[in-house]
Amino acid sequence: MEALFYIFSIIAIVSALMVILVKSPLTSALYIILCFFALAGFYILLNMQFLAAMQIMVYAGAIAVIIVLVIMLLNLAKIKGAIKDFHQIAISIIAIGLFTLEVILYLNAAGEKKPTGIYTNTVINKIGNTQIIGEFLFTKYVFPFEVASILLLVAVIGAYIFAKK
Amino acid sequence: MNVNDYLIVATIIFCIGALGVLIRKNLITIFLSLELMFNAANLGFVAVSEYLNLISGDIFVIFIMVVAAAEAAILLGIAIAFYREKGTINIDDANELKF
């Protein structure tokens, strides 16, 4: 388990770095698919197999394919200067590096908190991973579920209006 | 594994995504960096939810996936409309609203 965690984290972090460093958008899209698969591995380590399957289907399947399709439609060969100038990059890297350091320091300083819920790994495995998510989604969280369907409808109409000539 | 290790990995991926939004000019790459930030937040939700023995965080991840899919459709529609207008997707050319 420990070895798998380190393998997944190295793959995820290196592929995330390559997404923002490589020049070609298509290569970026392929690296982000790799990053999605590494994150799906994290979900399996965290005993959430249903979310791992959704991650691969929705992110690596649907969203990445839409991105690659749009890259195919647009002619991106003539974009010059894909990265901003040195001054802006230096400020950005210092700010983001400080933020990372602060969050990691905060995480190390945070105290222990006792688990409050009843859904331990043995309970989840006894009921079934998919079943427990389905029960929550259609009983306690049914109103956000309906709102999400309306949001998807609005997104479809909006995308149609934007892409229409 | 400790929950802190997962949260540190999520923090690093989130910051890489934020850095990508700041330093890149290509609209598609900025969109990919946004997706990285979404995924880092998802990893944090799942890790904390597993640590506290709750399900709510995992349900929230599903809703974040819905929002990410809707955002993908809208933003790629904007990219296509912008490319039709300008012939490029460099964000420095999006200066129509500048005074």
UniProtKB/TrEMBL annotation, chain B:
Q: What class of enzyme is it?
A: translocase
How the protein sits in the membrane?
Multi-pass membrane protein
Cross-referenced InterPro entries, in alphabetical order? NADH_UbQ_OxRdtase_chain4L/K (IPR001133), NUOK/Mnh_C1-like (IPR039428)
Entries under PANTHER family matching the protein: NADH-UBIQUINONE OXIDOREDUCTASE CHAIN 4L, NADH-UBIQUINONE OXIDOREDUCTASE SUBUNIT ND4L
Gene Ontology cellular-component annotations? NADH dehydrogenase complex; plasma membrane
The reply to whether Magnesium figures as a keyword in the UniProt entry is no
Q: Which family does it belong to?
A: Belongs to the complex I subunit 4L family.
Q: Which UniProt keywords apply?
A: Cell membrane, Membrane, NAD, Oxidoreductase, Quinone, Translocase, Transmembrane, Transmembrane helix, Transport, Ubiquinone
Q: Name one Pfam family in it.
A: Oxidored_q2
According to UniProt, the reaction catalysed is: a quinone + NADH + 5 H(+)(in) = a quinol + NAD(+) + 4 H(+)(out)
Q: Where is it located?
A: Cell membrane; Membrane
Transmembrane spans: 6-23, 30-48, 60-83
- Gene Ontology terms describing biological process: ATP synthesis coupled electron transport
Please classify the protein's predominant subcellular localization into one broad category.
Answer: membrane
Give its E.C. classification number: 7.1.1.-
Q: Subunit arrangement?
A: NDH-1 is composed of 14 different subunits. Subunits NuoA, H, J, K, L, M, N constitute the membrane sector of the complex.
What's the stated role of this polypeptide?
A: NDH-1 shuttles electrons from NADH, via FMN and iron-sulfur (Fe-S) centers, to quinones in the respiratory chain. The immediate electron acceptor for the enzyme in this species is believed to be ubiquinone. Couples the redox reaction to proton translocation (for every two electrons transferred, four hydrogen ions are translocated across the cytoplasmic membrane), and thus conserves the redox energy in a proton gradient.
Q: Identify this protein by name.
A: NADH-quinone oxidoreductase subunit K
Organism expressing this protein natively: Candidatus Acididesulfobacter diazotrophicus
Gene Ontology MF, one: NADH dehydrogenase (quinone) (non-electrogenic) activity
